[in-house]
Amino acid sequence: MGLAFIEGNEAIARGAMRAGCDFFASYPITPASSILDHMLRLLPETGGIAIQAEDEIASMGFCIGAAMAGRKVLTSTSGPGMSLYSENIGLAIMGETPMVIVDVQRQGPATGSATQGAEGDIQLTRWGTSGGLPVIALSPASVGEAYQLTCLAFNFAEKYRAPVFLLSNKEIGMTKESVDLDATPLPPLLERKRVPSGQKEYLPHFFDRLEEVPAISDFGGEYVARYTTSTHDKSGYLTTKPEVIQEMIDHYAAKIENAIDDIALVKEDLEEGADTLVVSYGIVARSAAVAIREARSRGRKVSSLALQTLWPVPEKRIASALAGVKKLVVPEMNTGQYLVEMERLAPPGVEVVGVCKMDTTLVSPGEILERGGLL
Amino acid sequence: MRETRYATYMTDQIGPLPYCPGCGHEPLIKALDGALVKLQPDPKDVVIVTDIGCIGLSDRYFATSAFHGLHGRSITYACGLKLARPELTVIALKGDGGCGIGGTHLLNVARRNIGITLIVANNFNYGMTGGQHSVTTPTDGVTSTTPWGNVEGPMDLCGVAVAAGAAWVYRATAFDKDLADTIATAIEQPGFAMIDVWELCTAYYMPRNQLKKKDILDLLGEHGLERGLQVDRPRPEYSARYREACQAGKQVTRNKPSIEPSHSNAVTKQTGIVIAGSAGQKIRSTATLFAEGSIFAGLSATQKDDYPITVQTGHSVSEIIVSPERIDYTGIDSPDFLVVLSADGLARVRARIEKLSASCILYADEALELPATKAQVRRFPFAELGRRVGRSYLATAALAALLEESQLFPSEAFATAIESFQSAGIAKANLKAVSAGAELARRAA
């Protein structure tokens, strides 16, 4: 698709198609519903399956089953649906299931301002299921990035055999923008590592090194396959041995945490001698860009990191950009969910300022300039 | 024909089945093995899908593929596997507890007719968690959570499945001599098939209610329920119907042609345009065409809309930004142009009008009572114009008038968008509206 005027949700659907997605299940919820609409139309034409499930729990269940049967799967929802996804997110982590979960965030809690934008699910995504294991989450700032990051999310899901979150926002999902998807740079597509043919048996969670991602054999493939929600050993059989359980937990964490350099997507705009660093993500990164241009035009020395990867936190990149900085400004459409992470990373003596609001309106460049002390 | 015959589909690698002496799960699992032996599928092409509950301990005793998921959700994983690979034999096992927490999945798999087999190990209570009552606990039944006897009524799982449209439903007991044959028949059904297997939980339900094996038949009688086939009404399986419905030639996607910028523009800075009207005035789709027109004129554009959930009522407001540069901030703090076509629209943007700056040009229907504003107000007979061009085309005419006055980009670019993206009949009416709007602006000047 060349130059077109489309909303972020359509870009996600087209990104998924571009990434080879061939299974989709979702339950309608504004502002994510039009992803469902698009996938229901796009997927069957390429032989894929798209289904409107009876609820969000079934959406996840269908997707996990299909993913383990070899499909590249996508599901989409918004905040209230994320709450219902929770238990199956845990299952996807436990079973090392490649899948992409889109959360087109809206103002909450609960039904909230149906349907206005927000970024209230940032920490929910990180801690949204029992066990507290690390996850991968990307956040686009524009319709074009929604397309690009959807493709990357599929790559990370396949590469790391894990659920990968795409944290969008009503302000991207339901905003149309002029964009040329064909001109958007995309990574080469990756497929999950599959067990070679002719092995004696298939160990669904086999690894030598903790951070190694186990090769997979799809249900319906050459081998008898096993999958379980319970603590298990490398063979996928239930285990109660504490040392085996600990090794598996360490494995789940290590495969994500050790991959941070590969996963960390950060758009750097650093200025020599900057006294202020603005760390932003999502739609607010664009307000930050305007604010930073304005501040610089007034002679302020300001650096910027626009994060596309939120989880795991790109700590090295942030720490390096913090060198010499006196003030760290974090604008967000929530009550300061990423601010907490920045406060954790900021060295003593660095003032950390949140420009936070969750009143359904965008954080404006003016608010960042004023409340961030950039004037 | 494969040469090996499988004598069993179970593995002896992890020891004997873990069930309490006399528990109905063991004969049920052995009957399932018997059914598979009868049918002789390749073990790797069979997936036993379980969830939580004592019956959920069983999948690992099979030498087939196995999927053990969360409480009450086995149907959903089974459906995902089956939809992804229709050639697999997918058998979901769940307890009566799972039928409670996952009740909606039972209703919906029956309704959809996805070709999985569901076997319910129905022993009237939650064995795994200490014998709490379930959706099938008989009235007056004693469980750990109904110490004075169950005051709730039991759910007839077969009746529910039948009512939800299941193609094949059978009520059995774990003691049926022909249970393996029944399960084999269920597996052979192309669509959704369910067997509700009544059992006794020897650890909890049986001793607490002084039940004996033969009492199961009395229980059925007490509930007015019959053993045996409940319904057998084959209809096309979901995946087959899905493929048929989505066959090539039934393309429903309308791939819009891409936009080739072919007009000039006179926009020098990011410019915000708000148009406010009523449901039915095609505000949103017209705003999209206008924005697309601006892209034909070489500009960047964004659009966001504001309308009530009940879309055919009340206001409809669209915000368009056009810019010669990339658009970063997509909010319009202070519009450059605001077009008000109706009282609904006015009500929605009233507070905004009060705060407009003097550089904003406000286009309003001449009959609307505007609040005090610093904006430059341009009054147009929009109501009359609407009667002339048609209500659905007024927004086009109004935006064409705005273009004529502002010269942001040529109305030809707007017309190009209309011709590119609209069907011939609608495009014709819209192009007329463009001319009418431009003419109105010229006369006003």
Structural commentary:
The complex is a heterodimer of chains A (375) and B (445). With 375 residues, chain A is α/β, with parallel strands linked by helices. Chain A is built from 13 helices and 15 strands. In chain A, the strands form 3 sheets. Chain A has a 7-stranded mixed β-sheet with strand order 3-2-4-5-7-6-13, with helices on both faces. A 5-stranded mixed β-sheet of chain A has the order 10-12-11-14-15, sandwiched between helices. In chain A, strands 1-8 form a two-stranded antiparallel sheet. Chain A is globular. The mean pLDDT of chain A is 97. Chain B is α/β, with parallel strands linked by helices and 445 residues long. Chain B folds into 2 domains: 25-245, Thiamin diphosphate (ThDP)-binding fold, Pyr/PP domains (Rossmann fold, 3-Layer(aba) Sandwich); 271-444, 3-Layer(aba) Sandwich (Pyruvate-ferredoxin Oxidoreductase, domain 3). Chain B is 36% helix and 18% strand. Chain B has helices spanning 25-39, 74-84, 96-101, 103-112, 157-163, 179-188, 205-208, 215-222, 238-245, 283-296, 343-354, 382-389, 394-406, 411-421, 424-444, and strands spanning 46-50, 65-68, 89-95, 117-122, 125-126, 132-133, 168-173, 193-198, 228-232, 271-278, 300-306, 315-323, 337-340, 361-365, 376-380. In chain B, the strands form 3 sheets. Chain B has a 7-stranded mixed β-sheet with strand order 2-1-3-4-8-7-9, with helices on both faces. Chain B has a 6-stranded mixed β-sheet with strand order 11-12-10-13-14-15, with helices on both faces. In chain B, a hairpin with a 5-residue loop joins β5 (125-126) and β6. Chain B is elongated. The mean pLDDT of chain B is 95. Chains A and B meet through β1, α3, α4, β8 and β9 of A and β2, α2, α4, α10 and β11 of B.
